[in-house]
## 1
Amino acid sequence: MVRIAMAVLAAAMFGFAIPASAQTAPTAAKDAPAAAAKSEAKAPPKAKDRCQDGEPSEVATYKISKGETLEKAINEPLDGKTGDADKGLGWMAHRRLGNCLACHKISKVLAMAEKTPSIKVTALNGKTSSMPLGIHGEIGPPLDGVANRYTEGELRMLVVDPKTAFPDTIMPAFHKNSGFTRVHPDCQGLAIFNAQQVEDVVAFLKTLK
Ligand code: HEC
């Protein structure tokens, strides 16, 4: 009982939730299922909710050509799709999708954020979220002027799989669904972006001159 009282006190002090089953020890066996059900209701989100933005399982087949600055480029749009730059910015700002702004500063987007602090993004599953535009990390190089440094085909290659250019990079491959190790079972076989999303992001990157 003393231990439970201390746990309740600690919970009050530090503001964490303690499972219902720890608060009142079930007195009779018949109470146990009810207590279990209660603690389940408070449990953290299940693992199956990890991939909840409609992540695609298909990746396009593409032809790799020789780039100008980089060794490799994908010169043809994936699946022949036409990109939409505004949507591309949304995918880039989305915390669970591109999350590019976590690593890359983009002056143009910082300037936009002064007027429009966040962007509404509707993920592939139809769920709409509001994502901040004004918080940028500096783990990667700023993307200012990236369209002057690389061809469209090189930018596409970098979004699809940056390890083809920078083998040790921490930047994720956004259109790849195999060859990874220790992927969470719920996310196995999924890519982050589908072909259309890659084209949308490439369309936005092309505006960075
Ligand atoms: C976890 C951090 C991280 C994330 C997230 C990330 N990148 Fe990168 N990116 C990097 C790093 C680091 C480099 C530099 C290459 C290297 O590792 O040597 C880079 C390089 C690049 C380059 C080449 C820049 C140059 O001037 O050479 C482009 C273009 C790029 N990233 C685009 C993106 C886009 C678009 C997204 C989101 C869809 C993104 N990155 C997400 C870390 C990240």
## 2
Amino acid sequence: MERTTNLSKVSRTFFEEVMKSHMGRTLSCCYQCGTCSSSCPVAEEMDIKPHEMVEMIKLGLKNTLVRCKALWQCSTCYMCTERCPQGVKLASLILGMRDVALREGIVVPRSVEESCKNLNDTGRLIAPSRFQMEKRLKLKLPSVPSIDTESIKGMVNKTRVADILKVR
Ligand code: SF4
Ligand code: SF4
């Protein structure tokens, strides 16, 4: 990841847009203690660490943020939000940035697309594999109940998941 800031890439409108939201208003309270990053279970894999994301939103670095891998690596465990001493709602801000990324037409990682497809087709983000089904049978466990996906498909159609799956 680029560690220098090119001022031509700064988007004031992005910062202002985020700050207008209920969650965005918490950003100004961040004093860069790094607790969010040290609490995050996936921070080690992220190209932009959680505390850096906060600073980058403030700097209006929208283009870098919506293209970073970390945006989709976040497991939305809310640990950063729980532990932040300043009440910064980072997990929700990341969800908001995903929305911005989709609006900008950024291609999502394959794994995200796969999870969306599983959700639409089976009602589960991770569909049980044939191996798991056979194992359950062998252990005399009840089979995994199927889910009525009609309401899920309705939800998918009303959200940007439909754009990811190109089903709209
Ligand atoms: S834990 Fe909160 S205050 Fe500390 S760096 Fe993260 S967002 Fe900022
Ligand atoms: S919500 Fe995302 S950024 Fe925050 S701690 Fe969990 S994985 Fe890390």
